[in-house]
Structure formats: C-alpha cells, structure tokens
Design a protein that fits this description.
There is one protein chain. The longest helix is centred in the first third of the chain and has 49 residues. The radius of gyration is 23 Å and the shape is extended. By secondary structure, the protein is of the alpha+beta class. The protein contains 3 helices and 5 strands; from the N terminus they run H-E-E-E-E-E-H-H. It has 2 domains: 50 residues; 149 residues, no CATH class. The chain has a 5-stranded antiparallel β-sheet with strand order 1-2-3-4-5.
Length: 217
C-alpha cells in the first residue's frame, strides 16, 4: 500500500508539473509579442528624446550598425542607431557603458551629430546614490543637458573633465565620481564617432542594418 501511495503521489506530482509547464509556456507565447513591442516602444522613446522626429525620416530601430564588445565599455555587442534624412546619415546614437560609476556601471546612449557635436546623452540604467549620483537622470536634474552641442573642440580635449579636475563640466555637490564617469564616457563616444566616421555616416540606407564592427577603432 505504501508503494502504491508513493506511485500515485509521484504520478500526481508529474501531472502537476506537466500542467504547470504547459500553462507557463502558453502564457509566455501569448505575451511574448506584446512584451517585445512594449520594449521596442520604450527604446524608441529614449532614442527620440535625443533625435526627435522632425530631424529624421527613417526608423532608427531598423537602421543600425553593431558596436563590438570591448568598445565604449560594452561587455557585449550592441546596436548603434542611425538617424537619416533621405539617404544621408545626420546623427548616430551610440551605446556606451561608464564602468567607473560610484556604485557600478552606468549604461548610456549618446547621440553624435554628423558634425561631431553631441546631440544628447541619456542614462538608461545606473545604481548611483539617490539624491546625489542619480542627478545624471534627466528626471532628477538637467545636468545631462550640458553635453548638448559639445564636441572634441568644445571644450578642448584637456577640458573634458569635471571642474574639480580642472575641466569644463560641473560636478554634483557631494558627488564627483558619477559625473566624472559620464563625462569620460561621452568623450569616448565622440572619439569613437570621429574614428569610425566613414562606417557610421558613410553607409547608404539599407546597407547599414546589422553591419558588424570591422575593427576600425
């Protein structure tokens, strides 16, 4: 009888596991497309904060080149998004990671115009201290807007640092490490765009999608 009871319970547990697996799989399949679309919309919203609709006429999410892992602080390959008017690339939005934030890595997207100036910078993810380092978020402070229009000539390369280090950029009261990391990452993105100008801005529409980084750094 004990053996029969164990067998019966095992069958019930197995049946329960199968039913649970089917339900989870069904839920995933039914929501997968909606989740992907929501993620796509959130991603597009972030891009449009940097390059608004009136500046371009393509879908940036579908017009990308690949930035290789090991570049711009990235741990894995990520897409850079090309903004075009007609066939001409007018700006690119680069992914970047500042690995040296106060509480860890800071994930960014950095827009660079064709002329080498900053179109905009946004922080996507961070773990900085609330009330101090989190002022890199546009919702907490307008500090991040101070990069708009800047370039490798404005300010001069030696001034791409926070004022505490003799540079041109403000730091936060009581928090220097976080803005220092973002300034360095933004300068790195400008240098990458300069060194890869032909690959980022010289590829015709339709030829750029999922183009792999050819190692031109």
């Amino acid at each position: 009888m004990l053996g029969q009871s164990i067998s019966r319970n095992s069958l019930l547990l197995g049946l329960f596991a199968v039913i649970t697996t089917v339900l989870i799989a069904g839920t995933y399949l039914s929501t997968r497309d909606r989740i992907a679309e929501a993620q796509r919309q959130a991603e597009e919203k972030a891009l449009l904060e940097i390059i608004p609709d009136e500046r371009h006429d393509n879908n940036m999410l579908d017009d990308t080149v690949t930035v290789a892992a090991g570049t711009l602080g990235l741990k894995q390959d990520k897409p850079a998004y090309i903004a075009r008017r007609g066939q001409q690339a007018i700006a690119v939005i680069l992914p970047a990671t500042a690995p040296d934030g106060y509480s860890g890595a800071i994930e960014l997207i950095i827009g660079v115009n064709r002329d080498g100036s900053v179109a905009g910078v946004r922080v996507l993810n961070h773990r900085e201290t609330p009330g101090l380092g989190d002022k890199v978020e546009l919702s907490k402070s307008d500090w991040i807007l101070g990069f708009n229009g800047r370039s490798l000539e404005n300010p001069e390369p030696d001034s791409w640092a926070v004022k505490k280090d003799g540079g041109a950029f403000d730091q936060f009261t009581g928090a220097t490490i976080t803005p220092r990391a973002v300034v360095a990452a933004t300068r790195g993105a400008l240098e990458y765009a300069r060194d890869n100008n032909g690959r980022l801005f010289g590829v015709a529409a339709g030829e750029s999608a999922n183009t792999a980084d050819q190692g031109a750094e």
